[in-house]
Write a structure and sequence with these properties.
Layout: H1 33-43, H2 46-56, H3 64-73
């Protein structure tokens, strides 16, 4: 699995360029988490995936079995994007 070592990357952050239309100085990561996850899945790099996994570990509102299954089903493209 691509992301099994995400805990080894606690410094990873989501690139603000993925959320280009939002004011990042006032951005509420918790309330906007679905947008963040969507953008990372659509356009993210490995560090972005590590970042959202680290952020999501701080909450229990996610079904980790489903998330793990979907991440494992993703196919890696040569340019490090996922579909």
């Amino acid at each position: 699995m691509f992301f099994k070592d995400f805990k080894k990357h606690p410094e990873a952050t989501v690139r603000h360029t993925l959320l280009w239309e939002y004011n990042m100085e006032q951005f509420d990561w918790q309330n906007m988490r679905s947008i963040v996850v969507q953008r990372v899945i659509e356009r993210g790099r490995m560090q972005d995936f590590y970042a959202i996994l680290n952020l999501m570990m701080q909450t229990t509102k996610f079904n980790w079995k489903i998330i793990e299954k979907r991440l494992m089903e993703m196919q890696r493209k040569p340019d490090q994007l996922f579909s």
